[in-house]
Design brief:
heterotetramer, A alpha/beta (326), B alpha/beta (585), C alpha/beta (144), D alpha/beta (610), A: 326 residues, alpha/beta, 5-stranded parallel beta sheet, 11 helices, D: alpha/beta, Glutaredoxin, 5-stranded mixed beta sheet, 40% helix, 15% strand
Chain lengths: 326, 585, 144, 610
């Protein structure tokens, strides 16, 4: 009987939609899923309304897959509601997991972002200096908009999260495994990241090509050299987050001859992906001469943005110091 | 085997032998000049020409380099051969009248005097080229060669100047048959003619006077025997038969559980302070020079003499040369004060000269030292407190003339003084050995900034290093005098023995470890370990730490990007907890 | 809180062999110095993980000090060089987080330099005092 | 040649000789003048001016040959050019006054091949002289160049090549006349040490005074040498060749360099030649101009960068030569002969010459002779033919005395032997040698003792000094000869000289020393009387040895004819002449230093020498 099927919800917050894609990318396997479960909420694909969810009894949804970071009050409200209605909540994708790309917003705050977005970008034509307001009165009626936070949050900084599906976006087999695990009730301990707990080098073919002593004299950016398709990126002097990034992505970037950017986040025993990678990178710089060190360090453009590309909100510091934002 | 006749005598020789060898084997003498058994035949002098008949054709050939052939009929004294030989000898007699071998040969061949013009009655060189070939083929130096053509031809080093290539083996002189090349022992080295310096020293010698053991050695680079297999004069003259040409340098490997480093120090080079004129003024000498001077086995038999052999009437001793001086070494060399006092005493005793000590502070710590200082005061040694600014021979007054003038600010009188003396002794300080850093690397230990070896702990472990089982003794660790050195050495020995006795030593418990289940084998850590304790297990795909080698610095742990490495007692979690703890209060 | 009355909270990561001994010496030599630096002992400045620094700031430190043996004197040969490299990159990154260079300091203090340790602590304390409290976003990134 | 010229056919080619001799006589200016003039008359697309290698008739340079027609112009000057161009090229009237007129004849000879100098020559080594521009490989190829090489590489086995050379009877043209085929066979058979390479060397270290045939070949036809070496390389299995040219031959070096580049560019040199998989390349080595380096072992030492001094053979270079490897070393002329032999066959070559000496030999004909120059003649030709028919006899109607062949180490051959058919053996018998082909003609005014002295002074100067006889012997002999020419000679000197000459010849190390005494021996053999006159009567019949001359003044002739012109007195360096204007002059023998100035200045033949 269909109503015996476990109920599943999909929701998206501050995200690019890639994670929704990742569901669709299950291709024919989606049919298995659809066959096995009963999708009760999926704004992207199906026409449900907020009230439909409100109507559901608490805990009636077996599992909610939520992607995207939390940037708006509305998103906060929705995920809190889904938390109530769901047995399990899975943070789907880097943004939900660690804040992801939207998380880089934490180097600014609402004010600076609005100034930039609505006033100073070259493409902006906004003579009246209009900015979104939470309340506006339009011919007598009051219109509201959700409020915009200063800080972007990962999902688990807002609600309690049971499992994490890492990746931007998570690869299909990871999703399938997760779904099957849930359906079969073969679940790992709560809070687990559903991906191997080793760093990427573990399964990277290029790891073989590492030299005896891994060391870097020059930091290169990917377009500054012709990348050797076989050789370890670090050995080529190109920043690759692989060593500090959880495995399981299937090396989509590396197979495309692009270094890892760290979308899978750190391994369990690491507190702060960026700091860890920074430490590793600095350690293998091949010089004991201070001037030379300064030179190489200078050549690293935007370390914070690079090392925390996906994990800023979840990092130890979380965001830039408010009082220093001008 | 080859059959031929020489002077009608049937002879059998093995293939490849020359006519000359064949003849010699049968006591038929063919005179030679440019031939030497150990050198390639040159066939230049044409004295050994013999008439050779072969297949009905006769010809004059040089015996020295013509191979014997089947059926050769050789006549060594045929009219034709003798004619040519005589003519050549006669001509050589004109070239080198003073060459004895030629004179002898001429007599044998019945030539009283040459009919040709004599250029130089004292000429000895016959241009046989033995020296040139010896230098090329045997010494391998090619330091001399023929230059010019025809009668202008002569032997010289490149451009007639002393040759870099020359190793001073004197093989050329050894091979010269006429004594045209001569050499003599001069200023401790062989000198060939006045203008040609033949190398540094003799092939067989005692390294230094105080060498232990006091035995001569053979410098195989210079020894002719090791080039030619000839000579062996040393063996001939040694009735104890002590000369052994087969002795080889050997590298001896010793397995040791503990090692004591006592690699000593290097004396400060006083030339580095030009103002003191060491190396410019013969009578400004270093402490070691003075030790040599007063040494009974020294050049003066222990008498304290000036360069000109006279006795000094006033001697200055400058303390802290190269020590306690930010320009050179900031540290105190610790021994200078006392040995300077010793010198003062000796000079007093032996030369009855006035002695001036120029000091910053006198550091007479230790048993009996202070007493010794007082004794010197009684002896009338003069002590002037102040750093000497310079030493010159520029006299301002009559009584300064012919003296060395020491300029110093007497900080007790608060005035600049000029002290004229005959001799100045620079109390040079102690410096770390030149190869300290190298040794440090070899033994996995560290040096302090002054590059003396670093002890494990200044108070608690002064003889130990950070490599367990390696101990320090003496001046390689810090400047110290003999009693201290002996004491420390004893301590080091004791520690070493204790360890050897125990047979095992406890490792620092703070070593790092890698959790294989978490390590992805990214190898970031491998290159970081200063003790090469980390190895990447290719097949297993993860890295491992050798507990015995790990000293527990934790660098790898800090660098491990996946947190697979942790340091016992310093785990991330523990330190995080500490940090949190700090802010509870 | 006015800077005059403000007592900076500083964390110092000291290497076991030089700086910690140096601090010890400063102590045994009865030198008084600013008590603001809370010391955490590590075996080598090379053990200091940037995570520790961030953690310290996150927990409320107004400044962080790393101190090790002088270059060339490291008891583990080169640990302090690694510390130096990490320090340079980290302080650059901290600025992006709005944490001024002056709040993060690296000093070489040998076992014999009790006095230097004293000076460092005093200077650093005064420096940070002038700058005032760090005030990371009050919730340290946690949702209000 | 301009690009246009390449395709174009021209009515007339003007072959301007660009051999060293003619060049030093401004043949390049002549070329420019010609081109200018031709352009002026708008003939520049009908007439082409070509520079060729040495034509050989250097005596008459600068030379110009007009083709077709083979009209031979000589001793041109820039002034002659306009006239010549207008007359010959415009109006088609060859210019008689610029043609060659044999001595003692009136009518000039227009056509080159009718001139004796050329008529009796047979050109094999010099086959291309005067016909091609040595700096253009195309012209060499147009003259069937590299055909022989093609044949050798594609159709012949090494054995076949060597057999061919052997049958042809070609012998080393360097002088010793060692059978070339045999030498190649030795190199081929020789097992190269540790499987190393085998080498070929072209000996262009031409040192004999007055000899320039090697230079001329290298300048006029470098490709013939390259081709010869290629064939040799295939025969002996060599992979690298060296051309050893003395640095005093800049033009030869330049042209050889160009030739090598062009050959490489055409794939005739280097890797996989003509796609046969055969590799061979050639380097030029510049000699420092030491005579002894013409000796093969010394030359090899020099190439190796060692002291240029010979060593005893055996081992022969063919067994152990350059860097100890088997090395085939032949003289320039020898190599230049090879292509023709391969192209036209051994039989043809062997048909020329005498039973023991086949083919031709190039001689450089110099000295007291009308037609100085380079001649290539068949072996067996007599000295008379060369000297009188080709050489045009002795100038000034003087009497022929002797001819010196074989360079400084050769010997002098007297007129009694003028009909000697030239080949290796006959010359050796006559006490001289073929040598590299120097041929110095001497007339009655030559003093044979002086000649011997001259050549010895050369050899002793060039002796490397390694072996006693050569170093000391040549010097000692020179001293004696000088003594004799100064009238201080004694009877003993003669015997001593004889003994020494023999001893040196007998016991010297290398060819240089062994042959150095030849001039002495031959002159003593054929002209002993001259020696004796020098020693006994203290006289030099030819009046060459000034120290022996006695100058006197025929007083009445001086007075009658010269009216005591006093010229001699004024020119006398030692005030040995007394007398004043309008008086007879006299020479005070005690003061006379025998400088001979008076003899030279007297316009009335009053001064007599005796």
């Amino acid at each position: 009987m269909s109503n015996a099927k476990p109920k599943v919800a999909f929701y998206w917050c501050a995200s690019c939609g890639g994670c929704e894609e990742s569901i669709v990318d299950l291709a024919e396997d989606i049919l298995k899923v659809v066959a096995a479960v009963d999708i009760v909420f999926w704004p992207v694909a199906l026409d449900f309304k907020k009230k439909d969810v409100e109507a559901m009894p608490d805990g009636s949804i077996a599992v909610s897959f939520i992607n995207g970071a939390i940037r708006l009050s509305e998103q906060e409200e929705m995920v809190k509601m889904l938390r109530r209605k769901s047995g399990l909540v899975v943070a789907h994708g880097s943004c939900a997991h660690m804040g992801g790309i939207p998380g880089l917003g934490n180097f600014w705050n609402k004010e600076t972002i609005f100034r930039r977005a609505y006033h100073t970008t070259p493409s902006t034509d906004n003579p009246d200096k209009v900015v979104p307001l939470e309340k506006t009165v339009y011919d007598g009626k009051e219109l509201t908009l959700p409020s915009f936070f200063d800080t972007v949050y990962s999902l688990d900084q807002v609600i309690d999260v049971d499992y994490y599906l890492p990746g931007c976006a998570p690869p299909r087999d990871l999703i399938l495994n997760a779904v099957t695990a849930i359906l079969e009730g073969k679940l790992p301990p709560k809070g687990s990241v559903l991906s191997p707990n080793k760093s990427e080098c573990d399964t990277c073919d290029r790891n073989k090509t590492k030299p005896e002593k891994l060391s870097i004299k020059e930091i290169k950016r990917t377009w500054e050299i012709i990348l050797d398709p076989e050789k370890c990126f670090l050995a080529q002097g190109v920043i690759c987050m692989g060593p500090a990034t959880r495995d399981g992505c299937g090396h989509r970037c590396i197979n495309g001859n692009m270094p890892c950017r760290g979308c899978f986040g750190p391994t369990d025993q690491v507190y702060d992906q960026g700091a860890k990678f920074l430490s590793a990178l600095a350690s293998i710089l091949d010089t004991n001469d201070e001037k030379e060190m300064d030179r190489i360090v200078q050549s690293i453009v935007d370390p914070a943005g690079t090392f925390y590309r996906f994990s800023l909100p979840k990092s130890l510091l979380g965001r830039k110091r408010m009082e220093t934002i001008k | 085997m080859i059959n031929l006749t020489i002077d009608g005598k049937k002879i059998e020789v093995e293939d490849g032998k020359t006519i000359l060898q064949a003849a010699a084997k049968n006591d038929i003498r063919i005179p030679t000049l440019c031939y030497h058994p150990v050198l390639e035949p040159y066939a230049a002098c044409r004295i050994c020409v013999v008439e050779v008949g072969l297949r009905g054709k006769t010809d004059l050939l040089t015996a020295c380099n013509t191979k014997a052939q089947e059926g050769m009929e050789v006549q060594t004294r045929s009219k034709r051969a003798l004619g040519a030989r005589r003519m050549n000898v006669e001509m050589l007699l004109a070239r080198a009248p003073a060459a004895e071998p030629i004179q002898k040969l001429a007599k044998e061949l019945g030539i009283e005097k040459t009919r040709f013009a004599v250029k130089d009655p004292n000429e000895k060189c016959i241009l046989c080229g033995l020296c040139v070939r010896a230098c090329e083929q045997i010494v391998g130096a090619s330091a001399i060669s023929f230059v010019e053509r025809g009668t202008e031809r002569k032997v010289t080093p490149p451009f007639g100047e002393p040759s870099e290539a020359c190793i001073g083996c004197t093989a050329c002189a050894y091979f010269c048959p006429t004594g045209a090349i001569t050499y003599e022992d001069k200023y401790g080295r062989k000198v060939i003619h006045e203008e040609l310096h033949l190398g540094p020293t003799t092939a067989i010698r005692v390294p230094i006077r105080q060498a232990v053991p006091m035995v001569p050695f053979i410098d195989t680079d210079a020894c002719i025997h090791f080039k030619t297999g000839e000579c062996k004069v040393c063996a001939k003259v040694c009735d104890r038969e002590a000369v052994n040409y087969d002795a080889q340098d050997e590298v001896i490997e010793v397995e040791a559980g503990t090692i004591i480093l006592a690699s000593g120090f290097k004396s400060f080079d006083a030339k580095r302070i030009p103002a003191y004129g060491y190396g410019r003024f013969p009578n400004v000498i270093s402490a070691l020079d003075f030790e040599r001077l007063v040494n009974a086995s020294g050049p003066t038999g222990g008498k304290i003499k000036l360069a000109d052999g006279s006795e000094p009437t006033a001697v200055g001793i400058v303390h802290c040369v190269g020590s306690r001086d930010e320009n050179y070494n900031e540290y105190c060399s610790r021994v200078c004060c006392m040995y300077a006092l010793k010198f003062a005493h000796l000079i007093h005793e032996k030369a009855h000269a006035d002695v001036y000590n120029f000091y910053i502070d006198l550091r007479c710590f230790g048993k009996g030292y202070e007493e010794f200082y007082h004794r010197l005061l009684k002896e009338g040694t003069k002590f002037i407190r102040g750093r000497v600014s310079d030493i010159s021979d520029m006299a301002l007054t009559k009584h300064e003339e012919g003296k060395l003038i020491i300029r110093v600010e007497d900080t007790l009188l608060g005035m600049v003084r000029r002290i004229p003396v005959d001799m100045v002794i620079l109390a040079t300080g102690l410096e770390p050995g030149l190869d300290q850093n190298q040794l440090a690397k070899i033994f996995n230990i560290s040096c302090s900034q002054d590059t003396f070896f670093l002890e494990r702990h200044p108070k608690l472990a002064p003889m130990s290093t950070f490599s367990d089982g390696i101990f320090l003794a003496g001046t390689c660790q810090a400047p110290r005098d003999i009693p201290d050195t002996v004491a420390q050495a004893g301590g080091a020995a004791a520690e070493a023995l204790a360890l050897a006795d125990k047979g095992t030593f406890a490792l620092e418990p703070v070593t790092a470890e890698i959790n294989k289940d978490l390590c992805s084998g990214c190898q970031v850590c491998v290159g970081l370990c200063p003790f090469t304790a980390i190895v990447y297990e290719k097949d297993e795909g993860h890295s491992e730490i050798n507990d015995a080698l790990c000293k527990g610095c934790g660098t790898c742990v800090a660098a491990c990007p996946s947190g697979a490495a942790q340091q016992k007692h310093f785990r991330d979690a523990q330190i995080f907890a500490e940090i949190e703890g700090i802010f509870l209060v | 809180m006015s800077n005059a009355t403000f007592e900076p909270r500083l964390v110092g990561f000291l290497c076991n062999w030089c700086s910690y001994t140096g601090a010890d010496l400063a102590g045994t030599a009865r030198m008084t110095y600013a008590p603001n630096v809370r010391i955490i002992r590590v075996m080598c400045s090379g053990r200091v993980d940037p995570q520790f620094v961030l953690k310290a700031f996150k927990e409320g430190a107004d400044g962080v000090l790393i101190s090790g043996c002088h270059l060339g004197d490291c008891h583990y040969k080169e640990g302090n060089y690694k510390a130096l490299r990490r320090y340079k990159l980290l302080s650059k990154m901290l600025e992006q987080f709005g944490i001024e260079k002056e709040r993060f300091r690296l000093e070489w203090v040998s076992a014999a330099e009790g006095i230097k340790f004293q000076q460092v602590c005093n200077e650093f304390t005064e420096q940070v005092r002038k700058m005032g409290p760090l005030n990371l976003s009050p919730n340290g990134g946690q949702h209000e | 040649m301009t690009e246009a010229a390449k395709e174009k056919a021209f009515r007339v080619h003007l072959m301007v000789c660009a051999g060293t001799g003619c060049v030093s006589n401004h043949s390049f200016e002549i070329k420019e003048a010609l081109e200018k003039e031709i352009k002026k008359l708008g003939l520049d697309n009908e007439v082409l001016v070509v520079t060729t290698g040495c034509n050989g008739f250097c005596e008459r340079g600068p030379l110009l040959v007009v083709q077709p027609g083979n009209i031979f112009y000589q001793q041109l000057t820039v002034k002659d050019v306009p006239h010549l161009v207008e007359e010959h090229l415009l109006k088609g009237r060859p210019v008689k006054k610029l043609m060659y007129t044999p001595p003692k004849e009136k009518t000039p000879i227009p056509v080159l091949s009718d001139i004796d100098f050329f008529r009796k020559q047979v050109l094999i080594a010099l086959r291309n002289r005067g016909l091609i521009d040595p700096e253009k490989i195309d012209e060499y190829i147009a003259r069937d160049g590299y055909v022989a090489m093609g044949k050798a590489l594609t159709q012949m086995t090494p054995e076949k090549i060597i057999a061919e050379i052997t049958i042809s009877g070609l012998r080393g043209r360097g002088g010793a006349g060692f059978p070339t085929g045999l030498k190649w066979q030795m190199v081929r058979n020789a097992v190269s040490a540790n499987g190393g390479a085998k080498y070929l060397i072209c000996n262009g270290d031409e040192g004999d005074p007055g000899a320039f045939m090697d230079r001329s070949i290298l300048e006029a036809d470098p490709h013939s040498v390259i081709e010869g070496m290629l064939i040799g390389a295939k025969a002996v299995g060599a992979t690298q060749g060296f051309v050893y040219v003395r640095n005093e031959y800049p033009l030869a070096i330049k042209r050889m360099t160009i030739a090598l580049e062009q050959a490489r560019a055409y794939g005739l040199l280097g890797q996989d030649i003509l796609g046969t998989g055969f590799d061979f390349d050639i380097k030029i080595v510049r000699g420092a101009g030491a005579f002894v380096c013409g000796e093969e072992t010394a030359l090899i030492a020099s190439v190796e960068g060692r002291l240029g001094e010979p060593r005893t053979r055996p081992p022969y270079p063919a067994q152990s030569g350059l860097w100890g490897q088997p090395t085939g070393i032949n003289n320039v002329e020898t190599w230049a002969n090879v292509p023709s032999i391969i192209a036209r066959g051994a039989k043809w070559y062997a048909s020329i010459g005498t039973p023991t000496s086949k083919g031709t030999k190039v001689f450089s004909l110099v000295g007291k002779i009308n037609n100085t120059g380079l001649v290539e003649v068949p072996m067996g030709i007599t000295l008379r033919e060369i000297i009188y028919d080709i050489g045009g006899g002795i100038p000034g109607g003087k009497a022929f005395k002797a001819v010196q062949t074989g360079g400084p180490s050769g010997g002098c051959i007297p007129k009694e032997q003028l009909d000697l058919p030239i080949d290796y053996e006959s010359l050796t018998q006559a006490g001289s040698m073929m040598g590299s082909g120097g041929m110095v003609v001497m007339d009655e005014d030559t003093c044979m003792v002086d000649v011997a002295r001259y050549f010895l002074s050369f050899t002793q100067d060039e002796s490397c000094g390694k072996c006693t006889p050569c170093r000391e012997g040549t010097k000692a002999m020179l001293d004696i000869l000088t003594r004799i020419t100064e009238g201080k000679g004694t009877e003993e000197d003669l015997s001593l000289l004889q003994d020494m000459a023999l001893a040196v010849k007998d016991s010297a190390l290398c060819g240089l020393g062994k042959t150095a005494p030849n001039p002495v021996l031959t002159t003593m053999r054929y002209f002993l009387n001259e020696y004796e006159t020098h020693i006994r009567d203290k006289k030099c019949p030819a009046h060459v040895c000034r120290q022996l001359n006695v100058y006197t003044i025929d007083e009445e002739r001086c007075l009658n004819k010269g009216k005591g012109c006093d010229l001699c007195r004024r020119n006398c360096a030692s005030d040995a002449i007394q007398g004043a204007k309008n008086e007879a002059h006299r020479i005070d023998q005690s003061k006379c230093i025998k400088c001979g100035v008076c003899f030279d200045v007297c316009n009335f033949g009053a001064v007599k020498v005796d």
